């Protein structure tokens, strides 16, 4: 990971002088060895080795953080961000300051779609989780610019968040948009949407809550539909049991638009959390 933020040798101050910090002007910050990149921001590995080693569905991406993203991380992370360390149970009403339903979004990229959905539906809180530092900073910056109060940004492993930090039945929805498809066969075990994940997610979703997935990788879409259809905790919102058209509330992202222009097929699957009494009736 780069140690600079829009580096510029020309702005290095003379000895004894403070570093200039003008918004929009590139600045250099050289970290000493062992110094946190953002002292009050997201940690590199929040859960550390406190939990079991397992195959993960994600891998951190290393890329440059812009000055605007860095500024948002420094200013807003203490209020709107949190590390997924598994050390506490989140009180979502206290966390957001209201009792509105909370939707968990796993993997938000640069956050443009998340910010648009939050702005369009201020009565729904969005708990957005990713491991990409530039994206975390960008979403915080967008939330600040748009005056959003219904977005919180999590850093780390969503499995640990679901299992250790969220109460049963506490989520009003779950969104997984364009997860890593892990296209090579030997990597399919890394895909997020698997029976074990669905079983965990079902315990955290309130009855009737919707799990919404979208992908432009057709073999992964078929797997999503297959494992969700087979899981007793979910039922397809489509009467025909197939894919759903893109709902109006899910924005068409730049990435998705580029894929459509190349002929990619995007599939949405929307499944509802089945109440326990309905599951029992189906098994009878």
Automatic annotation (TrEMBL):
It is an enzyme of class 2 (transferase). It comes from the Bacteria. Keywords: Methyltransferase, S-adenosyl-L-methionine, Transferase, tRNA processing. SUPFAM superfamilies: S-adenosyl-L-methionine-dependent methyltransferases. The keyword Methyltransferase applies. Pfam families: Methyltransf_4. S-adenosyl-L-methionine binds at residues 105, 130, 157, 180. Residues 1-49 are annotated as: Disordered. It catalyses: guanosine(46) in tRNA + S-adenosyl-L-methionine = N(7)-methylguanosine(46) in tRNA + S-adenosyl-L-homocysteine. Substrate binds at residues 184, 216, 253-256. PROSITE patterns: SAM_MT_TRMB (PS51625). Its EC number is 2.1.1.33. Residues 32-43 have a biased composition (Basic and acidic residues). Pathway: tRNA modification; N(7)-methylguanine-tRNA biosynthesis. The keyword Transferase applies. GO terms for molecular function: tRNA (guanine(46)-N7)-methyltransferase activity. InterPro entries: SAM-dependent_MTases_sf, tRNA_(Gua-N-7)_MeTrfase_Trmb, tRNA_methyltr_TrmB_bact. Catalyzes the formation of N(7)-methylguanine at position 46 (m7G46) in tRNA. Belongs to the class I-like SAM-binding methyltransferase superfamily. TrmB family. This is tRNA (guanine-N(7)-)-methyltransferase. It comes from Streptomyces atrovirens. The lineage of its organism: Bacteria, Bacillati, Actinomycetota, Actinomycetes, Kitasatosporales. The gene is trmB.
């Amino acid at each position: 990971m780069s140690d600079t933020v829009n580096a510029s040798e020309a702005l290095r101050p003379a000895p004894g002088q403070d570093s200039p910090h003008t918004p929009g002007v590139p600045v250099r910050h050289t970290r000493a060895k062992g110094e946190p990149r953002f002292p009050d921001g997201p940690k590199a590995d929040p859960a550390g080795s406190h939990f079991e080693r397992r195959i993960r569905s994600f891998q951190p991406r290393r890329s440059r953080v812009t000055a605007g993203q860095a500024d948002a991380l420094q200013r807003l992370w203490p209020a709107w961000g949190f590390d997924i360390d598994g050390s506490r149970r989140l009180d979502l009403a206290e966390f957001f300051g209201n009792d509105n339903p909370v939707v968990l979004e796993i993997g938000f990229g640069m956050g443009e779609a998340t910010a648009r959905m939050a702005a369009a539906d201020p009565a729904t809180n969005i708990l957005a989780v990713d491991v990409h530092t530039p994206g975390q900073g960008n979403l915080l910056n967008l939330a600040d610019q748009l005056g959003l109060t219904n977005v919180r940004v999590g850093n780390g492993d969503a499995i640990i968040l679901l299992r250790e930090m969220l109460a049963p039945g506490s989520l009003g929805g779950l969104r997984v948009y364009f997860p890593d498809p892990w296209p090579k066969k030997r990597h399919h075990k890394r895909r997020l949407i698997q029976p074990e994940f669905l079983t965990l997610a079902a315990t955290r979703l309130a009855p009737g809550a919707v799990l919404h997935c979208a992908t432009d990788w057709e073999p992964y879409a078929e797997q999503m539909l297959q494992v969700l259809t087979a899981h007793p905790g979910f039922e397809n919102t489509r009467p025909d049991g197939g894919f759903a058209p893109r709902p109006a509330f899910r924005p068409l992202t730049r990435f998705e638009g580029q894929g459509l222009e190349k002929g990619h097929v995007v599939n949405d699957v929307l499944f509802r959390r089945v109440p326990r009494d309905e599951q029992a009736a189906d098994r009878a």
